[in-house]
Design goal:
Elements: E1 2-10, E2 20-28, E3 34-40, H1 48-61, E4 68-73, H2 76-83, H3 86-92, H4 106-116, E5 120-125, H5 133-147
Parallel strand pairs: 1-4, 4-5
Antiparallel strand pairs: 1-2, 2-3
Helix pairs in contact: 1-4
Length: 158
């Protein structure tokens, strides 16, 4: 099955800091019917990069069978980690801190790789706040994530 996964870390909505994160799974079933599943998280005190990773994890972990996934994110950090093979380099270095700087979010990256294993995934970066339809989708998630309160990832990863 082919699935589009839209993710966003929302830095708006919470007057005291970052908001939350959200993911929407969109797919068409064998009868041609479009389905959407929205996952959102309430206020989280963490960085935008971590929220982007948690959104991707939430979406991938919600899939109950192997899929062809197109993952759309306005996080260059998330998309470039895969498309430019940064993550491969971190694994080869056994997730150690390189001399040039820290490897960020190691536990989240490991969980994302585990969630990604059964799927064929293509990562797409969509420029933020430019009116592009795929990015509007991500931006809509930001509000949903900031307003939501369903806990979909365990507190230990925050």
């Amino acid at each position: 099955m082919k699935v589009k996964l839209y993710t966003d870390g929302a830095a708006r909505g919470n007057p005291e800091g970052p908001g939350g994160y959200g993911a929407v799974l969109q797919y068409v079933d064998k009868n041609g019917t479009l389905h959407e599943k929205e996952l959102s998280q309430g206020y989280v005190k963490t960085t935008n990069n971590r929220m982007e990773l948690m959104a991707a994890i939430a979406g991938l972990e919600a899939l109950n069978r192997p899929c062809e996934v197109e993952l759309y994110s306005d996080s260059r950090y998330l998309v470039d980690a895969f498309n430019q093979h940064w993550i491969d380099s971190w694994i080869r270095q056994d997730w150690k801190r390189p001399k040039s700087g820290p490897v960020k979010n190691v536990d989240l990256w490991k969980r994302l790789l585990e969630a990604a294993k059964p799927h064929e995934i293509r990562f797409y970066w969509v420029k933020g706040h430019d009116g592009h339809p795929e990015n509007e989708r991500c931006d809509r998630l930001a509000t949903s994530a900031a307003d939501g309160n369903e806990r979909i990832i365990d507190e230990g990863l925050q």
